[in-house]
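During data preparation, a discrete fold description was generated, as reproduced here:
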Amino acid sequence: MSFPYVSKLLVAAVAVAALLPPAALVHGEPIDEVPSGTKLNKTNWEIAKGAVPDEILEFYKRGDYENVIIQKPGNDWLVDPTLVAASKANAGKYDIDENGTVVDKATGKRPDTILGRPFPDISADDPKAGSKAIWNWFYTLYWEGSFHTSSPVNWISRDGPLRRISTDVHFKYYDGNPPEFQAKIGENPLNILARTMGVVVQPADVNGIVNLNWRFRDGDKEDNAWTYVPALRRVRPINPANRSDGLLGSDISLDDGPYFDGKPEDFEFKLVGEGKVLAHFDGVALEKGSPVEALDPEEEVSKLVPEAGTGWRLVSPEVALIPPQLDDWQRKDGENLVAWAPIQYSLVPRPVWIVEATPKNPYYLYGKQIMYFDKDTFRGYWKNKYDWKGNALANWAVPAMPITKTTTHDGKPFYLRTGAGGNAAFAVNYKQDRATVTGMPVLPTEYHIQIDDKIFEVDRVSRMGK
């Protein structure tokens, strides 16, 4: 992988083989000086050298991908000020222990609750910087609260869609919610950090497959996971090491999740660089602006519909996410986009920390994962996954979205990360030349909702299965 803009300090601190030295861009233009509206494609792919993973850049070089570069200066459109304020209050409070767990500096123990990102200030020369970036990512995710979504999963070859399953998923986070939502979590005698329940609802041949996962605050306690397979008609525990395996043969693993969902204590993290990348954003949202501030019923933007008493439902318009959804698309090698090309995406230059994750379990499918965390939001871009010999295998990309200012049910200001074209995430398998795409078709998603703990009980797994 090559990344321009990598600091000289970090290049001296890590193995030279891990990152190539800064590369000169075509015409000497830094990526943040490329004119806004420039379409990155096979005619000008060189301008993105080092700004996306090399394997992704190859798709632009071949004419498989093309996306518009958008210059979006500042952070007001992207940063939740309430999360920033809560994070600043954590300065100097927390540390990472020898197991990789975030702990209170004063007690050396895992705190019951953390509000905001635990490490608001990360230094490039801190040996724990990689782990701190990971925990900042998780507490950015937890700030969005529990949510429910129906997520179609699509298998796509170079020439078009092959298969689709539909899943119904509940995520509940027991820590890191905004204060008004954290107060409603209630008692947590099992010391749970997060729980997930996923049910396959279509097609008929896989209808009723259920996966349940519990993650604990205790750093030395493994995830508990169970599955129900209708053909076996019984609930079975599964090894948490299998979280790297593909979901029902797809290229999406449980440890992919919203970007990275592995248990932090199961990995070693290392900060291997910093720089700028072309981050993938929901292009419809960037074009249309805030979906709440433009609530014209005729306007093709997503709308936040308040739920009764708690949360919001994000309702998005049906938009084309991949080329086969366009009327004039026909696949021709070298002449048209590959079938899974993320046409919804717009590319925005963003500053990032570059983090390498290595699993402690030698039987884990991926030998390392390279992640790019936004320095200001800790959202992740272009996660590249490698085998144990260092060969690039796959990429997982979840669209970044702008922040929308809305109000709570009692009229207080509130900020939500919302898109206008749905949540189309792309798992690209380099070796098999295929992809798995979620969020197609676009379906409503409910955020900051109250989810009954009974949904996540083991005895419900068989009842929810078929």
